[in-house]
Amino acid sequence: MDRAVFSENGKQLDSFDIELATTVKERERGLMYRESMPEDAGMLFVYPDEGPRSFWMRNTLIPLDMIFIDAAGMVVSVHENAIPGDLTPISSGADARFVLELNGGRARADGISRGTVLSHPMIARQVALRPCSD
């Protein structure tokens, strides 16, 4: 498990122990059926490309903040306190390559919002693998 660090204007806001969901099966299951999650933990969903993302809370037992992040690690949108069990789609509203789920209320408490940057080894690796356009 690696630490992910949120920062804004070069100032660190908070960091979290991150579990990765990189396969289709891992992304489909996500945080379903979990009764709790440590306050300093989260799950980072990693997609093979950047695009619109949509989540729901089926079989999810805890409220979550969903943070949608572009390929460079910048937050493009935040959905706070998703309701456990709710089947209403939650959309990124913009192209995202990553989605980070944290305990509900953490984004607001830590000042995580559009434009905040997330640093994590998986994001750095994906950025490094992107082809150059010369």
TrEMBL record:
InterPro entries: DUF192, Saro_0823-like_sf. It holds the Pfam family DUF192. This is DUF192 domain-containing protein.
